[in-house]
Amino acid sequence: MTPAAHRLNLLDRPSVKAALVNRWPQLILRIVALAGFLIAIVSGLIGTPVGSHNFGIVFVWIAWWALLMLIAVPVFGRGWCSICPIPLPGEWLQNGAVLGPQKKGFSLNRKWPKRLRNIWLQNIAFTLVALFSAVILTQPGITAMVLLAFLFVAVGASVIFERRIFCRYLCPVGGFIGLYSQLAPTEIRVKDAAVCAAHTVKTCYTGSADGYGCPWLLYPGALTKNTYCGTCLECLRTCPHDNLAFNIRSLGADLRQPAGRKLDEAFKAFIMLGAALIYSAVMLGPWGALKSAAYSIGSGPWLMYAVSFLGLIFGVLPALFLLAVAAGRALSGSKATLKKSFVTFAYTLVPLGLTAWMAFSLSFAFANFSYVWPVLSDPLGAGWNLFGAANVSWQPYLTSIVPALQAGVLIAGLVWACATARQIAAETQAERAALIHALPVMGFCCLVTLALMGLLIA
Amino acid sequence: MKAERFARLLVLVIVVGLPALVVAARSASRGPIELRGVMADEGGWAPAEITAQVGQPIQLRLTSDDVIHGFAIGQRDWPAVEVLPGKWTTTTLVFDRPGKYTFYCTRWCGPNHWRMRGTIEVAGDETATVSEAPPLYVTLHLDLDAPHPGDVAPVEKPSAARGAQLNVAPQIAAGAYREQRPAQVWRYLRDRASSSTLTDQQVWDLVALAWRSNTTTERLAEGQKLYVENCAACHGETGKGDGVMAASLQTANTSDMPGLIGHGAVTPIDFTDARSMLGANSAILQGKIVRGGMGTGMPYWGSIFTEAQTWALVDYLWTFQFD
Amino acid sequence: MPSVRSSSRWMVIGLIALLLAVAPLPIASAPPTERRFRIEASSFHYTPETISVNPGDHVTIDLVATDVVHGLYLDGYDLNVTADPGQTTSLSFIVDRSGAFRFRCSVTCGALHPFMIGKFNVGNNDLLWRSIGLAALAVVAVAWSRPR
Q1: What is the rounded distance in angstroms from the CA atom of residue A172 to the CA atom of residue A176?
Q2: What is the DSSP letter of A56?
Q3: Each residue of B220-264: pLDDT tens digit?
Q4: Does the beta-carbon distance from C147 to A426 stay under 8 Å?
Q5: Is the pLDDT of residue C1 over 80?
Q6: Inter-chain touch B84–C108, beta carbons under 8 Å
Q7: Where is A208: in which H helix or E strand?
Q8: How many domains does chain B have?
Q9: Residue A166 placed within a domain
Q10: Overall number of domains in chain C
Q11: Residue C25, pLDDT above cutoff 90
Q12: pLDDT tens digits, residue range A175-193?
């Protein structure tokens, strides 16, 4: 495998390479993230119950979410995973060290059960969080419990299983970050496969004195997609032949990789798309009954809401999509099985879903970002004024241009999704047949885009 | 090895130290009393009872855990303090006389807003307390809960200005004014020779004039302010008893779980109902305000309004009948 | 020749896109009138949830808080008003911007406060129509384009 065309290896610049290979910059960022994470939990437990003045709510669901959806994921793919605080305490225990490899750590290092080596658990975890989000996002105490639960599970996973099992198979955030990282203009890949072939020890997977074997259980020598690479940068440190590159590349490059498309990832795309539609209606719409239903957990209206929520993401959207794929398949005379067509074309929804979430996040984040300043000065809502901004009042930002921004993002996403549909079809069929196969799927994407426009811009 | 040790130290100091610092800073005991407010249904003020000493300032830090509230001490003219969700306001109180003071919420926060009250027990030299006289309705032996229909009513709203143009002196003494009912006064004026040439409506205008001349513009303005802030939510901005809270009184009355409101709740009084109002007197109105409705949902304001404030409010209530 | 044809396709598409984006759309021709709306604010929605007016109207909103102190902030106009229960507060303004705007509660009123939202429609939502047009054009453009 020769290095793909149109790649710019950032590691060719010595300063960049030094900054990434050196463990300290990454450790500093990790320490800051972990401290922030723990302060968020503390704020949720002992701070004011008023969400808008609580560091936990404002920094997790407004600041972090906005930065994640609008910058980190589209630009850096799984870049957040590189500094995410959740797995760190467990990983440090597991490694017996905070910095580089030391002597033994503390873990049973069990292998993850084969049957669970997919993202279905992550799909379920995300769906549950999304279903209860009206309460989680507004109650600091509940947010704290959820974050503590993540931490507990992550530490438990590190102590029982090998490497970053939590991140790879359990983390609900990782489920969608992984899927959307296929779109990012950054990647870590080997430069020359021949070098890997000649290197028998494969220290990028086994580890060495310079670094850990890939915590994400990948073999970097064969890495073709970003999905499960958490950009932890260990392989940059362990490869004795300097064969790893941190590339800038064009958007959506991984979508052009036909191999490795799976049903669990396809369903993740539906879950994310459906959740974007529902969140846009419930949180940004004017319908009070919907919001009450989403919030009053256990009540009759909530049950109806839950059924509709699950019905949309696991039923209606996939069913409609299946119809579109089936129509295209039949009309174009495709030889592929319906299931294969369904799974491969589902990757059209990856760019569609990312842009849907970006459009949603634009409104939500800009309207509420001004809570960040007072909460930095008074994280617990205890009357402190650390940086003098405690009395800055709420002010929505850029409300007159946000709708136009949302429209732009949605249309760009639609173009991207349609282009992806055509490109996926062209992998197995000639030009005209491929276009016919792709058209109903493009129609589906258009319908979803119109629905999002109706919810966000109308 | 050295780098690892330093890294571990950094982790300890920042990852463990910073959150621990936050917890410690919050838990450190402070001088002022922290007073947290939530809607009465969820608990009201915490603490609800505070003690103090005469002449000793007590400092309070106030916050809300849900919606906007306010804080004021009953029967004191100290300005109300905002109690804001997630933010803190500070106030210092000094009491010059011992006794039991009521503090209350000053911003409507649900149908049970008026139940959001607490007490400050101020200890000191007991001989300094002044005993209060009983309210007028007690002295007059009036039954506040008995219906009081007036047997006559005007065709249009009586106007004191029109009454003034008639150049007839209504002759009602200020003291008697509080005991007199408009319907009775109308009957009395109707029967007098000096008003024999006047129409019924014009006699009503004289009644309006009598009521107006027993109050001042300042008292009416104060009464209006009190009404708007305390009464309009239930009794309506136009006095019709159709305020935004009226519906919840009805709902509580008929529901299985009436909550704090209880089953005895009734619709708020319509002050524009001439038949009923004109058969009442100021003493009854003042008594109702001071004593409350005894389970009907009407709050008792005796510990909140001063006597002067209550009379000013009563003066204002008459403006729903008289211009 | 293929390259000329594909570049001329892109020019056509670009032109239509430009048209859709900036061509003037018919303006709602109703004469400006006085409009008055009573909006009840309760936790956590407004009644009515949506109001529609025409450009140029002189609009007065009477904000009636029904349970706790609520506010109303109008996106795009940057106008804000707060009301206590029992004290209706009015906001009066000339509607000079067209489109669809959200109004939100501006006073912390409980858990779902950040989601307390209503909609204010002024005339035609040009942005929506243009976006729908551009979305359709996007599908056509991608379908029409030559694969690389």
Answers
A1: 7
A2: H
A3: 999 999 999 999 999 999 999 999 999 888 887 777 777 888 888
A4: yes
A5: no
A6: yes
A7: strand A207-208
A8: 2
A9: yes
A10: 2
A11: no
A12: 999 999 999 999 999 999 9
* A297 and A244 share one domain: no
Same domain, B79 and B150: no
Q: Which amino acid is at C30?
A: A
Residues A347-381 pLDDT 10s: 999 999 999 999 999 998 899 999 999 999 999 99
pTM: 0.93
Contacts of A43 in chain B (CB under 8 A): 22
Distance CA(A54)–CA(A380), nearest Å, equals 5
Here the CATH number for the domain that contains residue C41 is: 2.60.40.420
Give me the domain span that covers residue B114: 33-128
Confirm or reject contact between A411 and chain C (CB < 8 A): yes
Residues of B in contact with C107 (CB under 8 A): 68
The predicted-structure confidence for C35-86, as pLDDT tens digits, reads as follows: 999 999 999 999 999 999 999 999 999 999 999 999 999 999 999 999 999 9
ipTM of the prediction: 0.93
Confidence label for B189 from pLDDT (cuts 50, 70 and 90):
confident
Q: Measuring CA to CA, which residue among A356, A348, A369 is closest to residue A454? A: A356
Q: Are residues C70 and C102 in the same domain?
A: yes
Q: Are strands C99-104 and C70-74 parallel, antiparallel or unpaired?
A: antiparallel
Structure tokens, B85: 């969700």
Exposure of A95 in the CB half-sphere (CA atoms within 13 A): 24
What is the DSSP code string of C89-132? EEEEEE----EEEEEE--S-BSTTGGG-EEEEEES--HHHHHHH
Token duo for residue B173? 């003494």
Query: Taking CB atoms and an 8 Å limit, are A422 and C143 in contact across chains?
Result: yes
Do the Cβ atoms of C99 and A288 come within 8 Å?
no
Nearest to A351 by CA among A445, A225, A427: A445
